[in-house]
Amino acid sequence: MDIKVDSRNCGDCGKICSSSEFCSQGICVCNANLSKCTNTCIDLKTDINNCGKCGTICRANSSTTSSLSSCVNGVCSNLSLSKSCQGKLTFIRTDINNCGDCRKKCGTNQTCSNGNCICSSTGTTKLTLCSNICSNLLTDASNCGNCGTKCLTGTTCRSGVCVANSGIKICDGKSVSVTSDVNNCGECNKKCPSNESCSTSACQCNTNFTRCGKICVNTKTNKSNCGKCGNACGKGATCTNGVCTYSSDIQVSLCGNTWLFTSSDKDNCGKCGNKCGKNMRCNKGSCECLSNFVKCGSDCINTKYDNSNCGKCQNKCNSGMNCINGTCKEQIGKNLCNGNMISTISDVNNCGACGKNALLVNFVLQVNAFVQLIQATAITSV
User: Fold this and answer.
1) pLDDT digits (tens, 9 = 90+) for 148-206
2) In principle, which of 241, 342, 349, 364 could form an S-S bond with 337, CB 3.0–4.6 Å?
3) What does pTM read for this prediction?
4) 203 vs 196: CA distance, rounded Å
5) How far are the Cα atoms of 6, 16, 143, 149 from residue 135, in angstroms, in the given order?
6) Distances (CA, A) of 41 to 19, 134, 143
């Protein structure tokens, strides 16, 4: 209850404004087109005791008994009691179809008084003329409390005040249903997140969505919550109908306590524990030779430089020859070391033979020379 605008509690509890008044800032004021004269709201255009202004009384012309005084548009005038309208003698002072003049018809809920169409009252309810229509300012949503004051959609005029209906609130000057509005769910400006709708004033997951933590997800397609909340699919997988699936080229197996891609894991190729050999890779669950290597028996060989498989498997080069680009050739000073042709004449790590380190050999030679020198010195001294 707002005592600043409540016509039944205007300015204080129990202070009721009359039907011709509305409450504004806690004060009962006259409705539109009415003026206050001695604490009563009067229509100065029609009231014969206050015609044009408060206290101006219209008096009948004493010389004419067939007419009475009337207030018309705020001016006193003598009005004949009767007039011939459509060939009939008509009392234009009270006839609602000929009020003040022939064919001047009063509207709905109006009566003719002193030749003026005025609003009639029903019981204790007083009607007020608003744009030529008699309205109950206590209940009319188009003229609530005052002529021209319209209530917003979703509100009702009660006791001359626009009141929001159940489930309706005024948000940013508009009436909204907080029971179903996703931008004002339960209260103004409370917006429901993505994949949610507002139902009974609360944000709820849409159909086919499940709440996982603070968000709503489709567990049929969500990789982080596949089939149920918290069930995350591994790398390379997709969630299809609530099941983590991989493409036909990808294999996943549980090896110990770890999920591994057995389609590409060199140490678990095709199945757990299946290791690919030297110069091999795991492709689609099968061990295969690396590029430039050929399968000879169980090994992957570089047939360009392998003396035992030169150019093809089991093609062995004769003694004193080396395999160069798949052909056995006499090549002094070069040997196949770890699958590569190495100059054993100049390579410090393969000096004279594969794996023979020149620095180490030189060190050993120096040590031997030093030992021999010591031994010779000892013999000479004896």
Assistant:
1) 888 887 788 888 888 777 778 888 878 888 888 899 998 899 999 999 999 888 999 99
2) 342
3) 0.35
4) 6
5) 18, 19, 7, 12
6) 10, 16, 17
